């Protein structure tokens, strides 16, 4: 994986200044138009001129040298996202771009720097008289004079009127007398010093990566955006360490290549899953790298499309992109690495890592999914949309106060197992599915993505839809040979063919089948009761878990309700008899946990209710399958 960063970075940095490989691409949302905000300190007129007309285009982050500050570092950058970088807190010069003055003290005093410091002094006198911005100095916005701005609140209100509903400022950049501060030569030197010069050491060492003897080296990697070398910090991850153990040093070329590679991957080979977790795709080439610097972004875009396993392209799209890949000569032998992570300021938290995956594995996963989808559709069922659907099925706790998802590692590890082809613990999945079903039935919004629904009908429908998707995941994982399910010869010949096939597809054992069948009968009773406005039969299920003894009672209660609702016609009698036979056979050695009992009961209920609705729409069974 380290080699992948190095390979990409070596190509990307060729002929570039450090400042040009240090930029970050800001997060963007589809459907939003982004503008570059320009703030000019006009010293001749003693006013500030604000411009929000320029529309952002890819590459502007390089042009304006946008770097996202990490942690509590001095915010000397003159292109920034947060307007606090302009304002300055009182007695906290380091909180805004004015802290560039302190940084310049560490550089040799060139004529350019002396001239700039003089301009900066006038900026402070005119626009920051008390150490904070004087908002009344903002006198022109988009070429129009303004008089009524006295505070931060006034400025923000005025900005809203200048932007359309779907427009946002992607970042702000500073000018003095019409010249961008980022265009000064010293600005490149400041970034170079921060990234390279500050931590450079002298001495005789052998570079750990290239093996060459060097006089200048690095053994401090805190400036790396992905800090997997810093083993005394939260951001460190042993999962990424590869062969990097103990003390080691890198020469300047290898150090900057890895830095450039990390930046490029973060900017161009990153994708997000459901707004929950970010994923990095890091190719590692075997042999010659198949692209030049001029083609590197084109390569990255195609690679991201072709080897993102969570985006299933239509066959025509896939063929088109593969043809482009071949046409440009990109189709070379390489391994894929995936990093599931979260970045928060200086913290780079890694949840899971997949290393050295053959690129053919992505092709295999796509082909397996197509086979699964075709078969499921052929049986009249609704398949999952793709591997990315999985994040909806694993309940993740959600902190409303912080607006953060808490259990990201669960999902990341599950997706990693699918990529690697390692077995998945079925018991873990069943517990998660039970949690997800109960959360939906009770509208428990402390889980991510759970909607607060008022009516019991809506909550019931949400739970049933969720359960059917969990069945599809079990079927898909069996298709991928990731679930170890022990085959059992069960006597199911009395069941309808469609029901028997569904049970086999899900890979249910005897105990699970007994409860699934009982659940279908609960669905049948619920269909009849729904005509009167509710389904009291569902009150017989304790959603928090049901013991074996409580199941004995439930079997009797279901039979009584079937009799009471005149539903004991031959097919239901056979289903009940099969369920009871399987239950009694395993009763003394019952191994399912209380929550598993609930999941399989509810699964049968969801299956039968969906079948009734489908048949009602098709006009079968006298229309008894109307929406429930």
Task: Give an overview in words.
- With 628 residues, the chain is of the alpha+beta class.
- It has helices at 2-12, 18-21, 60-63, 84-87, 100-104, 111-127, 152-162, 185-195, 252-268, 296-306, 315-327, 360-378, 408-420, 426-441, 456-479, 497-506, 510-530, 548-564, 570-586, 594-617, and strands spanning 33-42, 47-51, 79-80, 138-141, 144-145, 167-176, 179-180, 201-206, 213-218, 250-251, 270-273, 277-285, 334-344, 347-358, 398-399, 404-405.
- Strands 1, 2, 3, 4, 5, 6 and 7 form a seven-stranded mixed sheet that branches. Strands 11-12-13-14 form a four-stranded antiparallel sheet, with helices on both faces. A three-stranded antiparallel sheet has the order 8-9-10.
- A hairpin with a 2-residue loop joins strand 13 and strand 14 (347-358).
- The radius of gyration is 31 Å and the shape is elongated.
- The two termini are 52 Å apart.
- Mean pLDDT is 89; it is low at 230-238, 241-246 and 622-627.
In short:
The protein is α+β, with helices and mostly antiparallel strands and 628 residues long. It is built from 20 helices and 16 strands. Strands 1, 2, 3, 4, 5, 6 and 7 form a seven-stranded mixed sheet that branches. A four-stranded antiparallel sheet has the order 11-12-13-14, with helices on both faces. A three-stranded antiparallel sheet has the order 8-9-10.
């Amino acid at each position: 994986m380290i080699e992948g960063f190095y390979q990409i970075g070596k190509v990307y940095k060729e002929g570039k200044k450090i400042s040009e490989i240090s930029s970050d691409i800001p997060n963007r949302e589809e459907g939003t138009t982004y503008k570059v905000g320009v703030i000019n300190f006009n010293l001749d007129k003693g006013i500030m001129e604000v411009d929000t007309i320029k529309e952002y285009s890819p590459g502007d982050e390089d042009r304006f040298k946008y770097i996202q500050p990490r942690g509590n570092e001095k915010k000397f950058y003159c292109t920034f996202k947060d307007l606090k970088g302009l304002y300055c807190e009182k007695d906290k010069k380091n909180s805004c771009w004015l802290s560039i003055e302190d940084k310049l003290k560490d550089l040799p005093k060139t004529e350019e720097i002396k001239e700039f410091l003089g301009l900066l002094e006038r900026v402070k006198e005119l626009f920051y008289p008390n150490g904070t911005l004087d908002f009344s100095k903002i006198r022109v916005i988009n070429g129009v004079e303004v008089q009524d701005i006295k505070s931060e609140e006034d400025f923000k209100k005025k900005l809203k009127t200048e932007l359309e509903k779907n427009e946002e400022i992607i970042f702000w950049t500073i000018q003095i007398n019409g010249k961008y501060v980022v265009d000064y030569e010293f600005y490149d030197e400041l970034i170079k010093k921060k990234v390279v010069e500050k931590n450079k050491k002298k001495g005789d060492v052998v570079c750990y990566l290239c093996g060459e003897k060097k006089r200048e080296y690095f053994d401090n990697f805190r400036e790396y955006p992905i800090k997997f070398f810093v083993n005394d910090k939260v951001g460190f991850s042993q999962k990424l360490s590869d062969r990097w153990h103990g003390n080691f040093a890198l020469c300047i070329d290898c150090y900057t290549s890895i830095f450039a590679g990390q930046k490029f991957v973060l900017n161009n080979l990153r994708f997000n899953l459901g707004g929950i977790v970010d994923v990095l795709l890091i190719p590692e080439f075997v042999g010659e790298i198949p692209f030049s610097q001029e083609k590197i972004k084109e390569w990255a875009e195609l690679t991201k499309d072709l080897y993102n396993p969570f985006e299933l392209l239509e066959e025509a799209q896939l063929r088109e992109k593969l043809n482009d890949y071949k046409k440009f000569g990109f189709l070379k032998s390489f391994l894929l690495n995936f990093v599931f992570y979260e970045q928060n300021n200086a913290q780079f938290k890694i949840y899971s890592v997949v290393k050295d995956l053959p690129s053919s594995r992505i092709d295999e996963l796509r082909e397996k999914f197509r086979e699964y989808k075709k078969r499921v559709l052929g049986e009249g069922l609704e398949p999952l949309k793709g591997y990315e659907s999985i994040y909806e099925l694993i309940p993740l706790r959600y902190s409303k106060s912080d607006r953060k998802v808490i259990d990201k590692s669960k999902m990341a590890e599950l997706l990693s197992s699918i990529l690697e082809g390692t077995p998945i613990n079925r018991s873990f999945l069943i517990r998660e599915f039970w949690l997800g079903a109960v959360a939906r039935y009770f509208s428990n919004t402390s889980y991510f993505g759970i909607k607060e629904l008022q009516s019991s009908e809506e909550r019931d429908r949400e739970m049933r839809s969720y359960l059917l998707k969990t069945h599809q995941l079990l079927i898909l994982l069996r298709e991928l040979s990731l679930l170890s399910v022990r085959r059992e010869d069960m006597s199911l010949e009395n069941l309808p063919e469609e029901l028997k096939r569904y049970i086999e597809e899900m890979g249910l054992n005897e105990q699970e089948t007994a409860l699934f069948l009982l659940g279908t009968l609960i669905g049948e009773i619920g269909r009849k009761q729904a005509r009167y406005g509710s389904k009291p039969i569902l009150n017989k299920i304790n959603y928090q878990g049901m013991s074996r003894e409580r199941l004995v009672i439930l079997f009797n209660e279901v039979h009584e309700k079937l009799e009471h609702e005149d539903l004991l016609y031959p097919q239901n009698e056979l289903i009940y008899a099969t369920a009871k036979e399987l239950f009694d056979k395993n009763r003394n050695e019952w191994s399912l946990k209380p929550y598993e009992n609930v999941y399989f009961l509810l699964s049968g209920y969801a299956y039968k209710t969906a079948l009734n609705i489908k048949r009602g729409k098709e006009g079968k069974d006298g229309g008894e399958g109307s929406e429930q």
